[in-house]
Protein 1
Amino acid sequence: MPADRKTAIICTNDAWTLYHFRGSLMRALVDRGFDVVAAGPYDRHAELFASMGVRFAHVPMSHAGLNLSEELRTLWHLYRLYRHERPSLVHHYSHKPILWGSLAARLAGIRGIINTVNGLGSTLGDADGLLRLAQPGIVALMRRALKPPVRITFQNREIEAFYIANRLIRPEQATVILGSGIDTDRFSPDGPPPTVDTDETTPRPLRFLMFSRMLWAKGVKEYCRAAEQVGRRCGNGNRPEFLLVGGAAPGNRTAVDPVWLSNPQTIPGEWLMREAARGYVDWRPHQEDMLPLIRSADVIVLPSYYPEGVPRSLLEAMGCAKAIITTDMPGCRDVVDHGVNGLLIRPRNADDLAKAMLWMFDRPDRATAMGRESRRMVTERFSDARVIDQTMAAYAAAGVAV
């Protein structure tokens, strides 16, 4: 590969996320004349990149875990890829690609290195067991990997402040870009009549929806407890509906991609099925296409106390003109103006969540009006076009001609 080839490599730790969350950015780079390579572990979604004019490069990479030989194998594969392609730009998402990709790029002599930090996750946030013991070593490696001229974009200012306070980066390396951007034409209120296997021709009560990875820190238990409180309060006659989407049945009988189940905090399928059997929450496993379910709901809920960037699920819901209930936490509160397009609640507090749900239930017209505000906000602040423009400015600040 010629050294002056205008090549960009976009890397993260699963092909599904690369295609669905970074596809618009890769298309924008293709339009600007780049030869774009998507890099990450191969799965069935890798075949989709060809339709975008993007090549796919397999890089073995575990989503979680600390097996030293596997981590060194990831570093070696990234180094070989970068030495072969000689890209003018590499852009990493998620902590493992950021750490090993930045080290590999530096070793390969690549200068245009950009990393996007979506949140702290378990890598730098709260952790247990071996990961907690390994955190000081991870921090030391990251300080080395992230030295200038590497540039970092953050999805909220709290995470940026954490990196600076812990001397992982210098302030002049950082840029804040809220969210990863969404296609507001696709995620819109318009589309075929939604359905969730119910008769939509008859009046129905307010429908709440939580969709996310099934991790305890996403507030799944709090959602289920709040649904029970509201259900008992309203009785069986006209109580709201509560959908919960994500995770997998016991033994992964629903064939959910293993990457969605690899986090140590993943909630067992047995627990989810028991919760559904109690009759307050309608639980469904991970869905490839959430758009019909989002459109079918009235209020989207994310009671997360996870160290988020800007939750993608909330942006998608806002694009579809939905009211939001979420926690007063970094990332989550960046997309909700309390009382305008949704409600903010205290984290780890099912009582607060139940009160917010009842408020929405008693005021369906206000929920609809909040949804309209969500649509306005996401179009103005979080659209693909806006985020791509900001990302291109970050590339230019790194010395990459875009």
Note: The CA atoms of residues 170 and 337 lie 31 Å apart.
Protein 2
Amino acid sequence: MRNRAHTPPKDEASFINGGTAGLNAKKPDEPSTKPTTSKAKPVSISLAEENLNSIDNVIKEEMLSGNRRVNRSDVVRAAVMALENLSREEISQLIEKSRLK
């Protein structure tokens, strides 16, 4: 193929490192402007019918109150976040209570 643009030929390293590909990349020591989020990972859990009914009731209440759309994953995620406010002893008691049902 002919060089119609009359540009001098480049060696392989110049070709790879040239261009504009690296101009918009942020430097490693530069703080990020966006909060980093991790992608949700699918898990399989077993819930009793009573637990599923409780989750569905929370979803219905959210729908009736006019809040945004909520699914079961949102409710379970909120429940896990609520555990952060409990002490280790309270969490242990909840786990023991859940096993009895």
Note: The chain has a mean pLDDT of 81.
Protein 3
Amino acid sequence: MIRTRTKSALNIILLALISFFYACGGSSSSVETSVLMDGPHQAEIKEVIHTNAYSYLLVEENSSKSWIAATRQEFEVGQTIYFISGMAMENFQSKELDHIFELVYFVDQISFEPLDLMDPSSAVPHGMLQASEKKEIKLEKAEGGITIGELYADAQKYEGQEVKIRGEVVKFNEAIMGRNWVHIQDGSGTESAFDLALTTQDMVAVGDVVVFSGTVSLNKDFGAGYIYEVILEESKLLKDL
């Protein structure tokens, strides 16, 4: 299905993704460390298995079936998906499923539209992607804090400062590059700037209403494709809402 070609940048991204899987309960006795890539792939979903954080997909491409895995999102049998690259892992055990996949390809990014991923050089870094659509959320800002809209409207003013923001958790990724990654919304902001990412050592869950205090960084590049126009770093979860 997929031929092997080494690309160092994609290796870094996919290794970060795999470390994310390991942190949440995966194990493997054998790992193929080369990025497997021969251009864009178009495949049809034949089976979907969801866990709390991931989706395992049995896909068919050119009459060949393979398992691929990615961070969880909504997939349906019969859908056509598009992706560029994957990293092969043999005898990968999902502890949550209590199942061993003889071979599974860890895919960094999946699209439902063929134009999104046709050119590998045009793939959008993780941080440039919104966590989700703007939700119907209306929250008052924390006492002594600011809203997400206020932060985006005058980001230069807040650069390097510690701010306090209340929001609802819309996405949570645990233990990537030594930190947890949270996306929050509070109902403020514009149609293109309404979702705020932050890094923290604290644990939260999607749907939690939280208040975080963190330092504002602009145009932050963490490597491995994690680039953020605005992000709160070393954020701490405050108990008083």
Note: Residues 1 and 64 are 6 Å apart (CA to CA).
